[in-house]
Design a protein that fits this description.
The chain is α+β, with helices and mostly antiparallel strands. It has two domains: 11-175, Deoxyuridine triphosphatase (dUTPase) (Deoxyuridine 5'-Triphosphate Nucleotidohydrolase, Chain A, Distorted Sandwich), CATH 2.70.40.10; 183-220. Helices cover 19% and strands 28% of the residues. A hairpin with a 2-residue loop joins strand 6 (87-92) and strand 7 (95-99). It is globular and about 60 Å long. It starts with 10 loop residues before the first strand and ends in a 29-residue tail after the last helix. The relative contact order is 0.16.
Length: 254
């Protein structure tokens, strides 16, 4: 399934004529737009996570209400526009279920994590996450959300992301050897950390000074620029943005 180099194929086999649209994850979030001076976008780890995969978009507008019971009928779903079969109360227990409309296939050793869109909290309901062995399983999967409180109506808009998928490696996770250590056991790392702490403290102090470099800079950008505390470039890979490819129609015969 390799296409050459380090690229990996991810295939979405359509299970219906018009399955939900899939797009690369976008960095923007309404609450981040509304933050003072859009300061939330200054956090590079947030924006990277927002776009670290693909979003499946809801093809319908609907509202749902849970009365607190454990039965399927304890959730009422009202479709306002679009495909009525995309969402259902399948499991009960306050869970609504989305059908993704695809069977996904990844290369050997690669699975898919399905979850809610990162950093996009939704009132009264929370996305559940799952890891699926899409390298071999000839099975589709569903995306599930669970109400966090009863008697509150939630709403999904047509075009709103309801599922976020990203490739993961179970082998990489299981092969990782976690260790605990005192920072003092790594003098070089501690020296850089101490340098950053001092720099951070000085920067915060200077932010209060009119006309200071810190005021002009607005926030420290060393991490975003991939720089060490002394201004030297990191010797490792650094990403200030993630480029995720669009899904395209597969070539016949592959």
């Amino acid at each position: 399934m390799k296409t050459g180099g380090n690229s990996k194929r991810l295939i979405a086999y359509r299970l219906a004529a018009n399955p939900p649209a899939i797009r690369p994850g976008i960095t923007r979030r309404a609450w981040m737009d509304e933050s003072p001076n859009r300061f939330a976008y200054r956090c590079l780890p947030l924006t990277i996570a927002n776009s670290f995969g693909w979003e499946l978009l809801c093809p319908t507008t609907f509202e749902a209400t849970w009365n607190g019971g454990m039965k399927q009928q304890d959730i009422e779903i009202v479709i306002h526009e679009g495909d009525p079969d995309i969402v259902t109360s399948h499991f009960g227990t306050g869970v609504i279920t989305f059908h993704t409309g695809y069977l996904f296939r990844t290369e050997a050793g690669i699975s898919l994590m399905a979850m809610g869109p990162p950093n996009a909290p939704k009132d009264a309901i929370a996305a559940l996450a799952g890891v699926i062995e899409t390298s071999w399983a000839p099975y589709s999967f569903t995306m599930n959300w669970r109400f966090t409180r009863p008697n509150t109506t939630i709403r999904f808009e047509k075009g709103e992301p309801f599922c976020f998928i990203m490739p993961v490696s179970i082998g990489l996770l299981e092969g990782t050897r976690p260790e605990l250590a005192a920072l003092s056991s790594d003098p070089k790392t501690q020296a850089k950390y101490d340098e950053w702490v001092a720099s951070r403290s000085s920067f915060i102090t200077d932010l209060k000074v009119e006309g200071s470099d810190a005021r002009a800079e607005k926030w420290q950008k060393m991490y975003s620029r991939g720089l060490q505390p002394d201004g030297a470039a990191t010797p490792y890979e650094h990403s200030s943005a993630v480029t995720v490819r669009e899904f395209v129609e597969a070539k016949k015969g592959r």
